Amino acid sequence: MTAPPLRVVFFGTPEFAVPGLQAIITSPHPVVALVSQPDRPRGRGHRLQPTPTRLAAEAAGIPVLQPTRLKDPAFVSRLASFGPDIGVVAAYGRIIPDAVLQVPRLGMINIHASLLPKYRGAAPVHRAVIDGEHETGVSIMRVVSELDAGAVLATASHPIGPDDTTPEVERALAALGADLVVRVLDDIAAGRHSERPQDHARATYAKKIERDEGIVDWSLPAERIHNLVRGLQPWPLVAVTLGGVRCRLHRTQLAGEPTAAAPGTVAIASDGRLGIAAGDRRVLRVLEIQPEGKRVMSAREFLAGRRVEPGTPVS
Predict the structure, then answer these.
(1) What is the 3-state secondary structure (H, E, C) of 152-174?
(2) Residue 27: domain span
(3) CA 89 from chain center: how many Å?
């Protein structure tokens, strides 16, 4: 006998949540409602822009709820009116209170972008890339009151390449989590799922990214700075002043050759190549750079319009 499908209410806001939402929409489990954060003003005109999940839900004819307060009794009552069996959360962006967690009869599960208990918190992918991790993954976990501390129902691993950026890793994990969460929903519906408690003693915390983390200490090893450039994307990016021009670094690469140049100075500025010396006397090649108020450009394009010499200080 085939298990009856589960009625799902989906909590999610950014692009990361869209693949999971779409995967459930095309699964046997009906999405009865989407809960997204309110639309925010974006762009030069500061016009209200619908969240990515709202666009996906409306395209599929799914009701969208965008409460300003999750504890609002009117919202809780409206959510309950959909009769959800289970809630699925993916980067919703707010702590979900107990009154909401108790609405679905089977509780809620979360698509979390790390291999728990590592990297609980707001920025698991950024922190894994900044830390130079070679592997990360997704965990489907039970949502509980304590942040990212619930039992784990399933995990899937994903390698992090030496030049992968946060957005690239997030896109891969979003797809991985989308496939995994549907399989977990199938297992829950069939009564064959299992839940493994986390080892809280091994937990690490991925704190929110702050703007000032983009300030570089050039006494650090080149690989550490390269990991910062990869990890602090799409915001705030690593910021430098080069030849009197304020710039943001979008893509770098570790050069093989050592250098005698002082840390925090230009080591290479010729033949379309731009390299900066780090604290371990290794060169960090700049591949893509964005001068303030300008578009992102290659190192060759940047050097073509400016006089940058070896030994130029970088701050």
Answers:
(1) EEEEEEEECCCCCCHHHHHHHHH
(2) 8-206
(3) 14
CATH of residue 118: 3.40.50.170
Together in a domain, 157 and 245 = no
Query: What's the pLDDT score for residue 203?
Result: 97
Return the structure tokens found at 91.
Answer: 């980067």
Integer Cα distance of 203 and 120 in angstroms? 7
**126, two tokens:** 């950024």
Q: Are 119 and 128 in contact (CB under 8 A)?
A: yes
Domain count across the chain: 2
Query: Three-state SS for 287?
Result: strand
Q: Are strands 245-258 and 8-12 parallel, antiparallel or unpaired?
A: unpaired
The H or E element containing residue 251 is: strand 245-258
Identify whether the C-beta of residue 71 lies closer than 8 Å to the C-beta of residue 97: yes
pLDDT at 1 exceeding the cut of 50: no
Final residue of a structural domain among 206, 228, 247? 206
Question: Can you give the pLDDT at residue 2?
Answer: 77
pLDDT at 221 over 90: yes
Please tell me the distance from the alpha carbon of residue 283 to that of residue 261, in angstroms, as a whole number: 9
Q: Tens of pLDDT along 126-142?
A: 999 999 999 999 999 99
The number of beta carbons lying within 10 Å of the beta carbon of residue 78 is 15
CB 142 within 8 A of CB 153: yes
Tally of CB atoms within 10 A around 171? 14
Quick one: pLDDT band at residue 306, thresholds 50, 70, 90? Answer: confident
